[in-house]
Prior knowledge:
- An eight-stranded mixed sheet has the order 7-5-6-4-1-2-3-8, with helices on both faces.
- The chain is elongated.
- It has ten helices and eight strands.
- Helix 1 (21-36) links the parallel strand 1 (7-15) and strand 2 (40-46).
- Helix 5 packs parallel to helix 8 and helix 9 (237-263) packs antiparallel against helix 10.
- The model is unreliable at 304-311 and 319-324 (pLDDT under 50).
- It is 48% helix and 14% strand.
Amino acid sequence: MSSEEKVFISVIVPFCDERESIPLLYESVKRVLEGLGKSYEMIFVDDGSTDGTREILKDLSRRDSSLRVILFRRNFGQSAAMAAGFKVSRGEVVVTMDGDLQNDPDDIPRLLGKVEEGYDVVSGWRKDRKDKLILRRVPSIIANRLICSVTDVHLHDTGCSLKAFRREVIEKIRLYGELHRFIPALARVEGARISEVVVTHHPRRFGKSKYNLSRTFRVLMDLSSLNLFLKYLRNPLRFFGKIGVGFHFLGLLAACWVAYRMFVNKVSLIDLNVLVTSIFLLWVMGFQFLFIGLVASLIVRTGEKRRITLAPFLLYRNEGRDGG
């Protein structure tokens, strides 16, 4: 199959130190995809593993031409791994899932069924989640409610990695930071129709989870930036302009106070030099934010068709040699 040939479905799975899970997941995904009776490809991404995951993926790729492997030079995170998978995928429908065997490949046909109904994004809902209550489920519930309230995309489980996307949607999405959690919200900006289906969730069989409470802080920071992104993507001048006008207003109030002290209290201008300096600084800051807003608006308008550079990675191809 040539690199330009289209396939019906691409399944993207990022791995980070999951060597025990790879053979089992590979067999399960391949069995499900072959059962669909349509063209497919699997894209496994090694996110800088150090436990031998890289070698196992290379070996599988040598034996199966439908498997494409991406090798990161170091750990860049799940968002970068998914973005790299999106970049090289060729499927009309793209499915993402975790590599720890907690997502069930048997749910893939159900996601595809929703896509065929006309939806652009279908998200999995781990209704019966098999994770620790305090460390995983409670933070997830809190984060899910925050994400839904900010993004106005109402899903029961925004953190589930098992999702299906139409190609025309993912081609417009740019991922960085931890934004893989917010792909439905990013897709909504493009007018995507979004749905969800209940999926099976299994307990972790090998290794330990890469998630911990420290990631909650990063999610909150990304959520804050996403909130600004959703509100001011098309016209950032509105955001920076509000700040600039606020500084100008404070400068105007300070100027009125200086005038009152000079003409009513008969205070000399020299004695008010601190206030006069503050007025000048406030107005300068106001003009700076307005200028930043104008520049940001120009960047948005001229950069809409440019692609954000992805993290460096190697695409391991099965060409009869050991590369990467």
